[in-house]
Amino acid sequence: MHVSANATESDCPVWVPDPAGLSDVELLLDGAFPCLHGFLAADEVESVRNSGELPDGTRWPVPIVLEVPDDLARHERVELRDEEGAPVAVVDNVSPWWDGRAAHLAGPVRPASAERGRTLRTLRPPAPAVRAGLPPGPVLGLAPQRPLDRRRLAQIRHLCAELGATVLLLPRLTGPRPQALVRATFAAMAELPGGTTVVPVPLRSHGDGKRDELLAAHVAAAYGATHLLSEQVVEHAPIPVVEPPEMARDQADRWRPAADVPAAQRRRGLDEDELSERLAAGKELPGWFASEPVAREWSRLSPPLHRRGFTVFFTGLSGAGKSTLARELRDELAQCDAREVTLLDGDVVRRSLCAGLGFSAEDRSRNVRRIGWVAAEVTRHGGVAICAPIAPYGADRADVRARVGEVGEFLLVHVATPLRECERRDRKGLYARARSGDLPQFTGVSAPYESPEDADLVLDTSRLPVRDCVAQVLALLRERGWVRPWT
Ligand SMILES: Nc1ncnc2c1ncn2[C@@H]1O[C@H](COP(=O)(O)OS(=O)(=O)O)[C@@H](OP(=O)(O)O)[C@H]1O
Ligand SMILES: Nc1ncnc2c1ncn2[C@@H]1O[C@H](COP(=O)(O)OP(=O)(O)O)[C@@H](O)[C@H]1O
User: Fold this and answer.
1) Which of 20, 107, 297, 313 has the least C-beta neighbours within 10 A?
2) Quick check: CB of 317 below 6 Å from ligand 1?
3) Per residue in 61-93, is it b (16+ CB within 10 Å) or e — as a string?
4) What is the 371 CA–ligand 2 centroid distance (Å)?
């Protein structure tokens, strides 16, 4: 372990890495990357990329790096904080480096305080402590990314019996609902051999499937696994990697080694597409596929389409009809859908969440991104967010789409009412003021509106009555399966 004892730094600059960066920091601090002292220097990165080895010849699959703003990389020491602003770690930035794209910190990482507020802290002792607490003998490690179905559980039991091993499960804390995967893993405990250990790890993908799996082998070894169960062929792993044995479902719906079940007596399982379709449609998973507690958690992790959160984002000029359509859509949904709806209207938000922001390009961008942040939270928790800001810039709309898309569904509706008509309506007299020069930076008159090229639906309210506009939005929501069809 290369992480030294507590440090409290008060006078060094602070950086909040993104969630992916923070998960690497946590794994470094937890001793899950045992070959590393901290973030890699340029020569180490090059060596790992080219040969899968650190410069001293130690095998290591993935460059663990931290991008920061240019000026930060010039400091000798940087404190890393989590999203709540709590100190997590200190980087002694001994070998910062720059490539064409970004600046990077490089150097040893140590904890900022003994009491780090880590996700699921009580379930996650550091790797050496987990290793020391495992029973003696072989340990079969596994870093699942989805709940354990009955076939996989049968494979684990079979391998454990063969190797005389205990089980170490390292469910990955990634994706929009990581805690649901942890619950699903615990839900399978009754079907796992006695003495099974579960330690959630924030092990994320670094963008290369093969190297990611090799990294999982290193992490599993750091936590004390002597073998790794993996579907993939993993070369140069620090511990033997075992393929899951082929299993077949017999006439009594038990999963047994395929060799023991004559071909004529095998029943077929669910393929990936069938599984996704069942989950999306909210159909029960069969008992032979997953036990009831596991199936329940599985459907929480992957709720049916009509129970997942979604965001409808109206964009368009002032007076285009965004607020009117947003309100009508909310009222329609109230009659046919059980999800809670949060309306984030431009005018209303500017009096609350975004009070104090003006209409400069920067302030509009902040305004729209804040709305997107809230919409993503609503969506993550299975609600419906309806947003109705002007949102004149494509980059901000793309940011919202990406943010929401990570946790649920997103629909962009361009309320493309021509400027002429918006100006004719001029409900608030703002166009008249803008034309007279009394109101500067007015969208469509003296400030830009970038027409979306990625709208899921385009509505011109000068041609279509409100009722038809809303009907089109609802029809699309139904077509996509996010709202149930009329029964
Ligand atoms: N300069 C200028 N440009 C555009 N709009 C202005 C401006 N000043 C005030 N208003 C009023 O603010 C409402 C738009 O706020 P938004 O938050 O939707 O705008 S933005 O997305 O941040 O561009 C907008 O409301 P809507 O008419 O509902 O769109 C206007 O009433
Ligand atoms: N088909 C339509 N859809 C939406 N609004 C319409 C439509 N036809 C007329 N309007 C009128 O246009 C105005 C739009 O105002 P509003 O909804 O506040 O627009 P925005 O929020 O885009 O500024 C309202 O007075 C509304 O009654």
Assistant:
1) 20
2) no
3) bbbbbbbbeeebbebebbbbbbeeeebbbbbbb
4) 21
Q: Which residue has the higher pLDDT, 174 or 153?
A: 153
Q: Which residues make beta-bridge pairs with 248?
A: 256
Residue 57: what residue type?
G
Find the ligand nearest to 417 CA: 2
Nearest CA to ligand 2 atom 27: 324
The helix (H) or strand (E) run that includes residue 14 is strand 14-15
- Which residue's CA is the nearest one to ligand 1's atom 1? 442
Distance 123 CA to ligand 1 centre (A): 47
Give the pairing of strands 103-105 and 66-68.
antiparallel
**Whole-angstrom Cα distance, residue 284 to residue 186?**
20
Going by C-alpha positions, the residue among 398, 415, 257 that lies closest to residue 326 is 415
Q: Residues near ligand 2 with C-beta < 6 Å?
A: 316, 318-325, 388, 425, 427, 461, 464-466, 469
Q: Is the CB–ligand 1 distance for residue 444 below 6 Å?
A: no
Compute the distance from residue 278 Cα to the ligand 2 centre, in Å. Answer: 40
Q: What is the DSSP string of 361-388?
A: HHHHHHHHHHHHHHHHHHHHTT-EEEEE
Count, residues in the chain: 487
Q: How confident is the model at residue 192 (pLDDT cuts 50, 70, 90)?
A: very high
The response to whether residue 318 sits with its C-beta less than 6 Å from ligand 1 reads: yes
Q: Which amino acid is at 228?
A: L
175 is in an annotated binding site: no
**Domains in the chain, start-ordered, CATH in brackets?**
14-118 (3.10.400.10), 123-301 (3.40.50.620), 305-479 (3.40.50.300)
Handedness of CA 9, 26, 370, 330 (dihedral sign): negative
Closest CA to 204 of 442, 364, 27: 27
Q: What is the pLDDT of residues 215-240, one digit of tens each?
A: 999 999 999 999 999 999 899 999 99
Instruction: Indicate which residue's Cα is closest to atom 11 of ligand 2.
Output: 321
- CA–centroid distance, residue 455 to ligand 2 (Å): 19
Task: Report whether residue 397 contacts ligand 1, using a CB cutoff of 6 Å.
Answer: no
Q: Is the CB of 344 under 6 A from ligand 1?
A: no
Task: Report the DSSP beta bridge partners of residue 68.
Answer: 103
Annotated binding-site residue? 282: no
ipTM of the complex: 0.98
pLDDT tens digit string along 64-81? 999 999 999 999 999 999
Mean pLDDT, range 407-434, rounded to an integer:
96
Torsion of CA 113, 115, 118, 124, to 10 degrees: 110
- Ligand-binding annotation for 316, yes or no, is yes
